[in-house]
Amino acid sequence: MVAGLPGAERRRGRRVRPAGQHHRPRPSAQRGGAKKRGGDEAIGRSRGGLSTKIHATADARGNPTGLHLTGGEAHDLAGADALLPQVTAATVIADRGYDAEGRVLAVLRDAGKVAVIPPKRHRKDQRDFDRHRYAARYLIAHFFCRLKQYRAIATRYDKTARNFLAAVQLVASAILLN
Q: What's the distance, Cα to Cα, between the start and end of the chain in Å?
């Protein structure tokens, strides 16, 4: 017994717990316990870290007509697979990333739609495309610029893909109304 220290006689024989345990009998969340419900949250690792890709379609005025989320490491064709069946326009304008014969060009050709997509530079047969129509691709770029003006969209504060897609749809509807 140490004289002069209050409560020293009560602590004798007890083990001092390490800080950070907080008397919890369960393992920490980082130890990989039971998996939570839910599946893909559209968060992927790319060069810049964790990110989400927003795939969108727009009409001739630049108004959004379809939205889809994928992880940051996903190729653009993953968004095309989800959005192309919903497109009702007779002409589809896209950038070089969508120059895939089997997944995009053949699907559009079978649907009777005109594809205005420049060929990739490494193609052996460089097909022609309408450069004047392709100049209208700036409309989707302007839509994304207006979308990224909202901080919650530009930085993705939402944890779940469902909530983030709802926020993107809300902002897209505000852009559509303006």
A: 78
CATH (domain of 166): 3.30.420
- Does some domain include residue 114? yes
Q: What token pair was written down for 86?
A: 């919903």
In tens digits, the chain (178 residues) has pLDDT values of 556 656 555 556 666 665 655 555 655 555 554 455 556 788 887 777 888 999 999 999 989 999 999 988 888 899 899 999 999 999 999 988 889 888 899 999 999 999 999 999 988 888 899 999 999 999 999 999 999 999 999 988 888 999 999 999 999 999 999 8
Q: Where are the beta strands (DSSP E) in the chain?
A: 44-46, 49-58, 64-71, 91-93, 114-116
- Could you tell me if residue 27 is inside a domain? no
Enumerate residues 6+ apart whose C-beta is below 8 A from 100: 77, 80
Residue 3 in any domain: the answer is: no
Is 167 a domain residue?
yes
Reduced to 3 states, what is the DSSP secondary structure of residue 174? helix
Q: How many domains, in total, are found in the chain?
A: 1
| Rounded-to-integer distance, Cα 146 and Cα 126, Å | 34
User: How far are the Cα atoms of 25, 43, 114, 127, 134 from residue 130, in angstroms, in the given order?
Assistant: 67, 35, 10, 10, 6
Strand ranges (E), 59-168: 64-71, 91-93, 114-116
